[in-house]
Amino acid sequence: MINEIILAKYGEIVLKGNNKTSFERLLIQNIKRKLKSVGEFSIKSMQSTLYILPKDTSPENIDTFLERLQQVFGISALCRCAICKKDFNDIVKTTLEYLEDVLPYAKTFKVECKRADKNFHMKSPEVCTELGHEILERFPNLTVDVKNPQVLVTVEIRDTNAYIHTGNIEGAGGLPVASSGRALALLSGGIDSPVACYMMAKRGLQISAIHYVSPPYTSERARLKVETLCEKLTDYCGTIAFFCVPFTEIQEAIKNNCPEEYFTIIMRRLMMEIAQRIAEKQFCEALITGESVGQVASQTLKAIACTDAVCKIPVFRPVIGMDKLEIINIARKINTFETSTLPYEDCCTVFTPKHPKTKPSIEEVEKAQNRFNFTELINKAVENTTLIVKYAD
Ligand code: ATP
Ligand code: MG
Predict the structure, then answer these.
(1) Is 290 touching ligand 1 by the criterion CB < 6 Å?
(2) pLDDT tens digits for 85-98?
(3) For every residue of 363-386, which 3-state class applies, written as one string?
């Protein structure tokens, strides 16, 4: 009987020195939350590796565990392996049995040995040679190819046991969610801002999201679309507090009082003002947007400077230097692309000027904005902001 186990290897956490334990604790907590609905399991940590042992070790269940674990930030690599005694005969027996569905159909292989336990009586090259020999005897179809093997038989000799596998699976990388603090993301229904959320969660931020709606110009369906995006993002970001801001009156006030060419830039400044108020209440220390230089009129250098002029906390724009195609590739990977491309309107497309200023100066924007005192409307929008929490799973 083969016993399978999953090893999760830390990424950057390894470099965290004295803080390592708190990162590790958070990672384990995030993993437990992520796997809770899949089934029972035990988890222990040794030598910068987590040993995750599902109670139900059927291959299908292990598959599901792995799929989930690939969405947990802070894990650089995963591998499913057979566990055996630290005894060469048992290593041979387990390898031949564990890989009996793989090796008969391959042409080339190579054995690699990682000896974390330096007290093991055989050195790594010896394990490779001897095990390679046994594999060749059993499977005459195989030859050794050290450069480009079809199957990389890996033996890891660790603290209490030896582990056999055929290579690592890529983990999500990054740092455990919530290890870097909390930030508020301006989440539209578009492609870019969900990707921005994913990227900042990867750096260990706990994400809250804020979305502006302008009924009747924007529909209920448009808001639901953003809720769906939020839900999908919980796969990677964990629990997300989602704030919905009624923005109609503000947009109408801009339209009725300010020069048309400045509509969008003023709107963006007011969005930022409201976001900061909510951020403060929610202990978020930064804002996140999906802006990318040059993509639209409000994302030129000058326009971004005008938006930033009202911001007192850092604004993170992780896709700022990325091409649309690069952003789309990530959106597909994190499964938000399909929802993002549903054709519902966004408040940004309401009252868009025919000829927006692409090179506004801060002074002229302030002058245009000062034609109306927005304070009361901002207060009202903040007061009427509603919260929906999206729980992971
Ligand atoms: P996205 O694909 O994220 O919608 P975009 O390229 O369409 O971005 P804009 O519409 O100019 O760009 O919006 C820039 C950023 O402003 C968005 O990435 C998002 O962070 C924020 N944003 C835009 N509209 C909204 C909204 N209705 N609610 C919350 N944030 C918004
Ligand atoms: Mg948009």
Answers:
(1) yes
(2) 999 999 999 999 99
(3) HHHHHHHCCCCCHHHHHHHHHCCE
